[in-house]
Amino acid sequence: MKQIQLYDYQTEMKQRIESVFKLHRSAMVQMPTGTGKTYLLAAYVYDWVKRNESIVWIVAHRRELIQQIKDSVEQIMESMDEHISENLSDKVKVVSIQWLSQNNSAVKESPGLIVIDEAHHAVAKTYTTVIRDYPKAKILGVTATPCRLTKHGFTDIFDILLQSWTTNRFIAEERLSLYDYMSVKIDSEEQKNHLQFKKGADRTVIFQSAK
User: Fold this and answer.
1) Residue 125 exposure: Cα atoms within 13 Å on the Cβ side
2) Among 17, 180, 184, 205, which one is least packed by beta carbons within 10 Å?
3) What is the CB neighbour count within 10 angstroms for residue 63?
């Protein structure tokens, strides 16, 4: 299998994470969608597994994402070291926050690193409980959107916010494609239909209202 190489901005971010963890317990990493957060996550977990005896938990906010994340991480890590799959299942576990919150009392192992995918969900009680229950674990959150509609902050969870390049810079350096931005008028039928669709769902708003 061809070895996957990180881009320069991914390597830089990995080094920044390593530096932060020398002084702090937790860090949130922000990278725009499409710039390889999963690759960065897998590369950092790979280095952690090689350097530490403790296990790693990768926590997702939806059960449907578990296999997708697991397959991606395994593929990336095995491209870096074809022999790592022998110990991968014992050292790295991908779980949903729902499963973890329901079974936390029965879990006997203690992770040394907890990686939170889509970390803008981390203010939820299910996440804060897990973080509180494992005070010795380092916490790494990754997200494209370090904000929530509730406007709750993350300073109670993450010590540092590490921001990657801006979307404009990624586009200017031809690392991302240009995009079309769409908006809808306040009180339009499109907005009403979108809000009805969004009701009860935990998702980021994809339309911004415009006067």
Assistant:
1) 1
2) 180
3) 12
